[in-house]
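lol ok so funny story. i was supposed to be doing the assay writeup but got distracted and ended up predicting the structure for this chain instead. priorities right. anyway since i did it might as well share w the group, maybe its usefull for someone
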Amino acid sequence: MNQDYIKPDNWSIIEEGFDAERVKSSESLFSIGNGAMGQRANFEENYSGETFQGSYIAGIYYPDKTKVGWWKNGYPEYFAKVLNAPNWIGIEIQINGENFDLAKCKSVSNFKRELNMKEGVYYRSFEAVLQNGVEISAKITRFLSLDNDELGVINYEIKPLNGEANIVFKPYVDAGVHNEDANWEEKFWEPLEVKHSENEAFVTARTFKTHFTATTFMQNAILLNGNSVKQNPTEVQKTADKIQFSYEVKVEKSETVSFQKLGGYTVSLNHENTQSAAQNVIAEGLKIGYVNLLENQKQAWSKIWEMSDITIDGDVKAQQGIRFNIFQLNQTYLGKDSRLNIGPKGFTGEKYGGSTYWDTEAYCIPFYMATKDQQVARNLLTYRYNQLDKAIENAGKLGFTNGAALYPMVTMNGEECHNEWEITFEEIHRNGAIAFAIFNYFRFTGDYSYIPEKGLEVLIAIARFWHQRATFSTKKDQFVILGVTGPNEYENNVNNNFYTNYLAKWCIDYTLEQIEKVEKEYASDYSRIISKVNLDSAEMAQWKKVADNMYLPFSEEHGVYLQQDGFLDKKLVKVHDLDRSQRPINQKWSWDRILRSPYIKQADVLQGFYFFEDHFSKEQLEKHFDFYEPFTVHESSLSPCVHSIQAAGLGRMEQAYTFYLRTSRLDLDDYNKEVEEGCHITSMAGTWMSIVEGFGGMRVKDDALHFEPRIPEQWKGYSFKINFRNQILQVSVEANETKFNLEGTKELTVFVNGKAVLVEPNTLVTV
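and the output, tada:
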């Protein structure tokens, strides 16, 4: 049974009723962010129940030393983790001398959380009876400004319901925080300075080892019945890493006191003097004022939704799911800074270290290319180019030479920092996803300039890696790739994973094609690159030999490419014959048992068919889908979206719809029973792909948009927008017709089910 407490709503995530068992899950689901910082939906006031406190700053990390008793050459020196940042949201509250704590109240009623995704604002409200008999109602509003991404805003309203109340607000900033996943309870922040002035306070701290400096700040104000109360703190408590103010207010029955707190982070990534920067942020925030900050937030989100929204008519849960996914993606990364990337948990948790994975290239780039300016996607590609030297260094540690690059499975700064051997050294397919993203960027945007400027160097280094990683098998008279893990992490250290081998072959072929094109059309770039990387025709001939003779495991009996050489040696019991009590297997079985089983964590062979569907026939796709999907447990968040897209392509709409719901509501319904650890941010881009590429059938072929629109029977219609080469195309699909609307001044020819359709600007075209 999946969780089912989130109320269906088109634009909001809503929880009604207070349940301590749900707190950690809700902290994940109601998380907020603005691309530069984010936080879980922790309560501002003290809460003694079970909670996972977490605030995070983009680009700030810690290299946690890897400790193992069996060190091997090449093993990563550290496991990077996103750091729990100093806490700026905290507001202890005393009411008539009693510390307010929802876990200790006599009763809590009318409790409601709402994450309004249209506005980008998180609301919470409730009524509570304290142990001392005081009854209150409370309304809290919180948001992280999109316009000023160093600023967060809280408005905490309290109304006494059964008599006057003496209320003490005790806001604080605290750098003495712990990480949920910390080893040995260590701390990661070194306090440098604590300062305050009137209603402002600043705690400046520096990370150990990496020496990122952050000033965490707050500014406080009080309003009584909407009128400002001029008041400085009655008490200031300071330690080396924390500062806390006290404000005392007498509030009559049914009066409303509002405590407004501005806070956030200024960091050394962006400022030389973080404290003076913090003062500037506060000054700007005060100048704009709470009401206008809130209105500006709504306007900023309105602009994002204008381009990235997907509407679904007739299915509220499906609508809520896709908007939640789009919202979280935009909260996590807005493309302003090429130093940043997208962690699998975004700002919602610490799992996976908050680092960059291949998810960005395989899943996220299509979303950002189509819903933002192409510069955003280019920034994501540039991120990898800027880390090419590190990728070459990583490969060197494993014995590769001559400028071969192995991009890390997990990274913050280009260094490998993943400490699971079978992932770090065997899951080498990530190299292929990075090359594919370069190809995909050009295919969609038509911007070839990236390849001669930066991309070709990356492709050459990756091709060199594949050439060296392949082994010539005299037995097979072909090249093989041994000891790998594919996207399906339930098979480790296997030989000839189809997806990996196919990617290696394609990477080499594609790189050789681009070298030839750049030589012909960009002579100066060609000379610069060839000289820089010291590449000659003899080496390229060796590459081609590997690509032309790559072994791809195939079963004549079943007529399918095999996941890996030994797949048919397994006992092929399908998932539907597996007792439900054994699911999810990653929580019920030993790792040994999983590895020996036929069960697939996520699309593997089918991932290859997704990337390269034009290399295979529909009949081949159908055969492989029918063979592998029955063995797939979809215990990776990245799995359902690929299956949804492919099921839609095969016309299996009920199956496609089921997979769509699973990917879109993976966290909202907690399919994998782990949402309290954070949301699956990178797979959310796959949800977008499920609609646009799956149901919409969108593809780019020969510089033109192609569509094969389909619609689940549960929907009356759906629509989305695509920014295709600086032209905004709206696509609206209903059961019997598809409509196109084009913004701009130039006409655009698209193809619907293979037929050319001319779309003129600002003219509705119905097919």
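DSSP finds 20 helices and 33 strands in the chain. The radius of gyration is 27 Å.
back to the writeup now i swear
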